[in-house]
Write a structure and sequence with these properties.
alpha+beta; 5-stranded mixed sheet; Metallo-beta-lactamase, Chain A
Length: about 350
């Protein structure tokens, strides 16, 4: 039986959960006046995403949309009729461009002739994808071969990202969210707080007077958001952006009710920020300790993620492994060398200076 605080909130791993369970798929729960928590199903092991419906006058504003699947559209039809009582969507806000967040934004916007709000980098990232009718490029294959995968395995990675689930429908216009800007929705003033690392310019929404934070994927209560390096930008250092964003979020009150994109809403924001930071620091230390001898990214992935099932898991795990490796290379703690087309990482001599990555031809 879970421990409870004096308010009857579940206590687990230093966080407080006001609701003992999530609503069923396609159902809603009111978490604040005029704020509905909607559970949308996903076709993965992580089987859901939380969307939020904000009442605004004679309609609603949707925060995130679910994946671009027939199931998502079917659930939306029921939600619009029942939870929204037939009232229209007046706007869609996408915290970021990932397929489970922006998957049917275009469908909803077209249906209701309503605007989509998101940051500029997230909107642009919607259009950074490999055309579905082309084979994998040499640079895509080289990225995975340098990490230690075979050409056949790299081609299988390509098949994973070609899945239509990961392709949000495009829309032709958007309204730009900027860090520090505000949206007035239903009498509440929501401040845009941008985080980076999980995605280029992730927008959280903070309602100071009501103590609410719609955190998207930037802060999740139990799982750690993916922070990865992928073939589109192999020299990226997203973990540095991510850790800096965690520090910036400490400027928000610890007392906010965090409304995340996965799992349940919770209190104790700062405790969770501590946990997320400790998680990545532990991964950095483990990776560094594993590089007394030269190691490939594939070998290091097995150290950080010993239990994986399938190419999708490997895709995410390799991205995370490279994010930590690139961070340590930039710090000067690791050296990356290429040997016969394979990148190998080894611990730098003590006191080696930090290295700013340069373009190498």
């Amino acid at each position: 039986m879970a421990d409870l605080d004096p308010n009857g909130h579940e206590l687990r791993s230093g966080l407080r959960y006001p609701w003992p369970q999530a609503p069923a798929a396609g159902q809603v729960c009111e978490v604040a006046p005029g704020v509905l928590w909607l559970r949308m199903p996903l076709p993965f092991r992580l089987d859901h995403i939380n969307l939020y419906l904000l009442r605004h006058g004679d309609g609603w504003v949707a925060v995130d949309t679910g994946m671009n699947t027939a199931q998502t559209r079917e659930v939306w039809e029921r939600v619009l009729s029942e939870a929204c009582a037939g009232l229209p969507l007046l706007a869609v806000v996408c915290t970021h461009y990932h397929s489970d967040h922006a998957g049917v934004a275009a469908w909803l916007a077209e249906r209701f002739r309503c605007p989509v709000y998101m940051t500029a980098s997230e909107y642009q990232s919607l259009y950074v994808s490999v055309p579905s009718d082309q084979p994998p490029g040499w640079d895509f294959l080289a990225f995975y071969r340098k990490a230690g995968f075979s050409s056949e395995q790299a081609a299988q990675m390509y098949e994973v990202i070609q899945n239509g689930h990961f392709r949000p429908a495009h829309f032709n216009s958007y309204r730009r969210l900027r860090d520090g800007s505000h949206l007035r929705i239903g009498g509440r003033l929501w401040q845009v707080v941008v985080g980076r690392g999980h995605s280029p310019e992730h927008a959280c929404l903070f309602a100071e007077e009501d103590g609410l934070l719609i955190s998207g994927d930037q802060v999740l209560p139990r799982i750690t958001p993916t922070v990865g390096v992928h073939a589109t930008e192999p020299e990226a250092d997203p973990l540095r952006d991510w850790l800096a964003s965690l520090e910036r979020l400490r400027g928000l009150p610890d007392s906010v009710l965090v409304l995340p994109a996965h799992e349940r809403p919770f209190f104790n924001l700062h405790q969770r920020l501590d946990q997320l930071q400790a998680h990545h620091q532990a991964h950095l230390a483990l990776l560094l300790a594993s590089c007394e001898e030269p190691r490939s990214a594939l070998e290091l992935m097995a150290v950080l993620f010993p239990k994986l099932s399938g190419r999708f898991d490997e895709l995410m795990a390799l991205g995370e492994t490279l994010a930590h490796a690139n961070y340590l290379v930039a710090e000067g703690s690791l050296l990356r060398e290429e040997h016969r087309g394979l990148h190998q990482y080894r611990r730098s001599p003590q006191g080696a200076p930090a290295v700013t990555p340069l373009v190498v031809f």
